Amino acid sequence: MGVWPQYHPAGRRRVQERLATYLQQLLDDQSPHPMFWAACMTCEEQSPGADDPDALQLWCLQHSGRTSHESFRCEITTHGRVFPANDGT
Question: What is the pTM of this model?
Answer without folding.
Answer: 0.56
